[in-house]
Amino acid sequence: MPMRHQPLVEKAPAEVVERLVDLACLAPSVHNTQPWRWRYDDARLVLEADLDRRLPAEDPRGRNLTLSCGAALHHLEFAARAMGWETHVLVLPADRDPAVLAEVLVSRVHQRAAVRSDLDLLRTRCTDRRRFTAWPVPDDRLHELCRVAEQWGTRAEAVTSDAARIRLELLANRALTFLEIDGRRMLEQEQWIDRAGTDGIPLGLLPADPEPLQARSRFRPGLLEDTRMVIHGGDRVIAIGGASDDIGGWLRSGQAMSAVWLEATRSGMSLIPMSQPIEVESVRHEVARSVLRDVPEPHILLRIGWQAIGRSGLPRTPRRPLHEVFVRHA
């Protein structure tokens, strides 16, 4: 019998991998800490958690840090597809260093054209903390986004009933009160606001003094004008989590969060992570018990809504230079 020729696998050149990492670092992260490092050696790309950027008071177990790294991993996979490449990801290698979260091989068998709209989507996505309009996101859209999240091995649930939404709002306020009386947490959070440099949250991206009927925010007032009064907001919440509350689950939830965020952005929606009720363990357990049905271990809550038509776009939060987060060995 004639021998079948195996298709040749083309490994991505180092220059392509470097560009992918640059796009991956556009991912959202807790307080814009950008807690990731990438190492490229002999066609193997390694994602590591930058443990020096963990928030010991707010995030002692590293859940938010790992979620952030999972979002960066998904951004890299999304960017690779948009540029015509495939990714093969090994999560949590068995012989890994504790900081190593994933290994990625970027390759392809057949050349494919780049999808420019997807590359633009990565650059368009941002965190807009201004209030949503009163126009609610339809339930079918929310369920579609939940299905997007579940493709990454997570469980996702939309909070749609009035009773569940009211209960979640009460629990979120309880968590905020707990955080506000914890001096260590508040001091740590302040250290990431209005920093000089290439990380943290600029005051220009935090809404100014809230009006009486505006929902409470974990951050102090900033400089972003947000004067439109909305009495009944149309935002909805999606919970993402899984069956366990561990590093593997957090990484998958971070990938799912990124996937949902990009799809919401593509559809013209806006998204804000709501991690406060998850950061307070007693509140997190109560959210799972009394609000959710299908997510026994919630890892992140996402507020989703529509921004007002005609609002100006926001500048991007700063990003660390590539040489600080990417090491390329010869």
From TrEMBL:
Transmembrane segments: none annotated. Gene3D superfamilies: NADH Oxidase (3.40.109.10). This is NAD(P)H nitroreductase.
